[in-house]
């Protein structure tokens, strides 16, 4: 009973730490690194890794892990549907494996042997049923993940997904704001050229664009 209480307290502390990190002003890479580090600790995992889905390319790329292993840190890409990570992303369902070396769908058996990876729990990162990535926990011994462990990793996956989406929205908003500001500056510059040089709107725009190309500066800088 005492062990269960201690374990439950540890899980709550982990989720609280992740929540605080997400609401901070840290960079996304730093937050994801903290997420996998805290998760590996609370799940007693040898390796915890987080993969993000590239929607255009339909591939998953490893984005964060707490391990210092050079072999595991090597850049790897899995297609949607490929391997366990690709399968979980495609099916949008968690998957637990008792022994990855005996699992036909597991693609990285040599790496698993080298790193001593045995059991695996893989959970999709979703926002409104849209998969944006996958988080994995590996143990160095045979282990059947219980309902509590699955619930904890699912909660972590949900927090990580929200963090990633919020960051993407912030970036998109910033880009849109910059585009609108550039458009305003260009319109202002066009108006000045049309007034002082008696140019048409098209001629004024072409002159700004040519100046941009000749000087290798953005139209915003020229305007």
CATH topology annotation of the largest domain: Beta-Lactamase
Strand order of the largest sheet: 3-2-1-6-5-4
**What class, by secondary structure content?**
alpha+beta
The count of β-strands is 6
Identify the CATH homologous superfamily of the largest domain. GAF domain
CATH architecture heading of the largest domain: 2-Layer Sandwich
List the helices and strands and how they pair.
Elements: H1 2-22, H2 28-42, E1 47-54, E2 59-65, H3 70-73, E3 77-79, H4 83-91, E4 95-97, H5 109-115, E5 120-127, E6 130-138, H6 147-197, H7 201-215, H8 219-222
Helix pairs in contact: 1-2, 1-6, 2-6, 6-7
Describe the structure.
- By secondary structure, the protein is of the alpha+beta class.
- It folds into two domains: about 1-170, GAF domain (Beta-Lactamase, 2-Layer Sandwich); about 175-220, Arc Repressor Mutant, subunit A.
- About 55% of the residues lie in helices and about 15% in strands.
- It is built from eight helices and six strands.
- The protein has helices at about 1-20, 30-40, 70-75, 85-90, 110-115, 145-195, 200-215, 220; strands at about 45-55, 60-65, 75-80, 95, 120-125, 130-140.
- Strands 3-2-1-6-5-4 form a six-stranded antiparallel sheet.
- Strand 5 (about 120-125) and strand 6 form a beta hairpin.
- Helix 1 runs antiparallel to helix 2.
- The longest helix has about 50 residues, at about 145-195.
- The radius of gyration is 24 Å and the shape is elongated.
């Amino acid at each position: 009973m005492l062990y269960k209480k201690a374990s439950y307290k540890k899980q709550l502390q982990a989720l609280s730490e992740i929540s605080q990190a997400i609401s901070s002003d840290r960079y996304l890479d730093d937050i994801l690194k903290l997420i996998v580090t805290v998760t590996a600790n609370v799940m007693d995992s040898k390796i915890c890794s987080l993969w993000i889905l590239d929607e255009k390319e339909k591939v998953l790329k490893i984005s964060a892990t707490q391990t210092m292993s050079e072999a595991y840190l090597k850049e790897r890409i899995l297609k949607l549907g490929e391997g366990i990570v690709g399968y979980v992303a495609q099916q949008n369902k968690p998957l637990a494996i008792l022994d990855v070396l005996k699992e036909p769908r597991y693609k990285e058996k040599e790496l698993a042997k080298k790193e001593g990876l045995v059991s695996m729990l893989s959970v999709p990162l979703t926002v409104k049923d849209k998969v944006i990535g996958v988080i994995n926990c590996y143990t160095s011994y045979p282990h059947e993940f219980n309902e509590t462990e699955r619930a904890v990793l699912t909660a972590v996956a949900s927090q990580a997904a929200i963090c990633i989406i919020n960051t993407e929205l912030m970036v998109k908003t910033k880009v849109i704001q910059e585009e609108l500001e550039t458009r305003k500056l260009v319109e202002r510059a066009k108006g000045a050229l049309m007034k002082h040089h008696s140019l048409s709107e098209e001629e004024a725009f072409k002159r700004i664009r040519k100046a941009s190309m000749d000087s290798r500066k953005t139209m915003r800088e020229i305007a």
